[in-house]
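Hi F.,

I've been meaning to write this up properly since the lab meeting, where we talked about keeping a consistent format for the predictions we share between groups. The idea is simple: the sequence comes first, exactly as it goes in, then the structure tokens exactly as they come out, then a line or two of notes. No screenshots and no reformatting. I'm using this chain as the first example so we have something concrete to point to.
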Amino acid sequence: MGPGGQTGWHRRQLTVSPSPTQTLAEWVVGSQWPQISEEARAAASRSWLNWLGCAIGGANDPAMDRLVLALQPLAGNGTAPLIGRPGQTDPATAALLHAFASNILDYDDTHWATAIHPAGPVASALAAWSSQERVSGQEVMHAFLLGMEVSCRIGLAVSPGHYEKGWHISGTCGVFGAAVAVGRLMKLSPQQMTWALGHAATQSAGLVASLGTMAKSLNIAHAARSGLVAAQLARHSITANEQALETRFGFAHVLGSGSLNDSVCEGLGKHWEAARNTFKPYPCGFLLHPALDACLAAPDRLSVSSGAIDQVDRIIVSVSPLALVRADRPHPTDALASKLSTQHAVAVALLYGDAGVQRFTDAAVCDDGARALRAKTEVVADDQFTAECARVELRWRDGRSQVREICQPLDQPPLAMSNASLTRKFRELVAHGAPHCNADHLLATLDSFLFAPDAAELLTLTRPNA
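Output, unedited:
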């Protein structure tokens, strides 16, 4: 029988009282699409739309060009197409490249409770694998939702200590989602899915120290590749620890704050963490977004004209303790560093009244006005603030002071991104990263993706001369 069969190794039963690792594996294998709520399905479709837009937007970024060139001598021959650009490669490398492209602009998504960008590793691995075996749009979307859910639940189980220790949680937990999602398409047995999680656990990696460099996006890219490889290993009966999440010296014990208990599995299929995913309105680190909203969201937004910079005395930005540690970067040197600089984000928002893709480029970093306002900006921690909160105080030399404060969960109205705003963002990303693409055609195809008999046809529409 083939790799997905139930003979040999696969006849062995899981333990009578399944561990969290085994429970997650069995849930992924047994999930049925008709039992999934409309809310969860709609959330998955929105996350898929956002991911594809981000992958197209970053497809021809200079950093992506460098990565493709670096991997060419190492990648295997294959037929997996690249998103938004010519060329094809092996599916594992394609998964890595898709994920890198989807994150390089820092415009992707955020599950605020964990700080995970859940779609990138999962969708990228699925897109790569769906080019190898014919699967339907519904099968891909089902696997995508399950993969994001597993990533977010494991992330919650080790938060907040995991991220605070310096683990880049989008990479360390994204690998699990990618593994089970691809494993779902491969029709793995519960035993094989447990092994896939075990392989993912031992490949889990990524350091917060990489933020501000291209290696940050590679953390997410490696999660996509490693997750796909984990599923393929399990498919061919390469064994792994069957309690890798919770056992001593396992994932939670080594990378978290202790053992992983059964709460990671509570409400599976009823409560969807993946439905709480949010979409970035700004192409920068999510911890900068509250400060940007404080500057831009109010009807009477704060502003400083280029001719009034000298009249500004100080700008004091109060943020959460975590945001101070991660995003107090007064002297960004390039576009990547600017995406993690609260000083730069506030400066461009005050100067230009927006914070789009063009405000986080090398040219924007070198802008004299932005540089001058960054020098006047001080970032401080407010111990009462959570990550969703920020206060911006603009002090003028004549004694005036303007203050804007925001403390609003970004997955709730009015800051949650509407469908119309998400569509506008998609069009912006297509125009930026792959102007050869027909955004109208892509959006129409996405609207009917659940009914597509061959999911791979979607990616062909992103390629030049499609």
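Notes:
Confidence is low (pLDDT under 50) at residues 1-15.
The chain has two domains: 8-281+418-460, 286-407.

If this format works for you, I'll send the rest the same way.

G.
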